[in-house]
Amino acid sequence: MAVYKDKKRGTWYASVMYKDWTGKQCRKMKRGFATKREAQEWESHFAVREASDLDMTFGDFVKVYENDMRPKLKEYTWLSKEHVIQTKLLPYFENKKMSEITSRDITQWQNVMLIKKSKSGKGYASTYLKTVQSQLSCIFNHAVRLYELSGNPVQKAGPLGEHDSIEMQFWTKEEYLQFIPTLADKPYSYLAFELLYWCGMRMGELRALTAEDFDFDKKTIAITKSYQRIKERDVITVPKTKRSIRTIVMPEQVAIEMKDFLDSIYGLKSTDRIFTFSKSYLHHEMDRGAKASGVKRIRVHDFLR
Questions:
Q1: Which residues have C-beta within 8 Å of that of residue 170, sequence separation ≥ 6?
Q2: Are residues 128 and 181 in the same domain?
Q3: How does 120-133 read in b/e, with b if 16+ C-beta sit within 10 Å?
Q4: Which distant-in-sequence residues (6+ apart) come within 8 Å of 46 by Cβ?
Q5: Does one domain contain both 220 and 116?
Q6: How far is 261 from 256, CA to CA, in rounded Å?
Q7: Cα separation of 98 and 147, whole Å?
Q8: How far is residue 15's CA from residue 2's CA, in Å, rounded to a whole number?
Q9: Residue-number span of the structural domain to which 128 is assigned
Q10: What would the pLDDT profile of 78-128 be if each residue is shown by its tens digit?
């Protein structure tokens, strides 16, 4: 097996010798790679390819997909994918051959998903169904790109559901100022919502904050990490995207509140996490404050306005 430069076209190609399922010696060539690395990547995966299409089951290919993708992804991201694969895809497609799954099979699966109920007894939201189908399409795209599957049947089947987004709700400044005093009895809750509302950070970013992230002279917060609780372990990672690594300017009043708050915590080290509560605690506090203040309940996620 080897890769070569096509000097005439300025691209790269791979040439591979293999035996097909009958034992016949064959040669496979793949042209048009923009870089040598892309050609080598395609070549390195050829051991699990067939001459025309993938002849392995969907369940077996998921294992290949995991081996290829898991090392490239954050643990939390992979676990989210894995949950969808295990609960929504494998029960239907596990024993079907990749090369034999058609757009009709995808359509039938879509119809099952549309009538399926969640644990609460409600149908799945369109946005969630879109996420599930997107994962299924990612698996087939991976097979097309690297393992010579002839096409992606998910694309031919069309979208699942109407894909309308859940409408985000917001608090006006007046509503927030009506809400926040109800949490004044719990300083951690109060300061958490002050940072979420005025500084626009994600919950994982909030829960990863340490004292050294604050510069009270400049009134800034350095967002360089995110916190997740995964399988009873505390996991600190970089933020969701490269653009998420940023410096946030605090309103003066929030900076004063945070400095007074941190100064009041006995024995706090500069590297200690400040907000060590769970997601469910923050949601509970949102419920408590909304009920006490009479403002509408919004999602914590909607603070990212």
A1: 298, 302, 305
A2: no
A3: eeeebebebbbbbb
A4: 1, 14, 16, 18, 28
A5: no
A6: 9
A7: 11
A8: 6
A9: 45-157
A10: 888 999 999 999 999 999 999 899 999 999 999 999 988 877 788 888 888
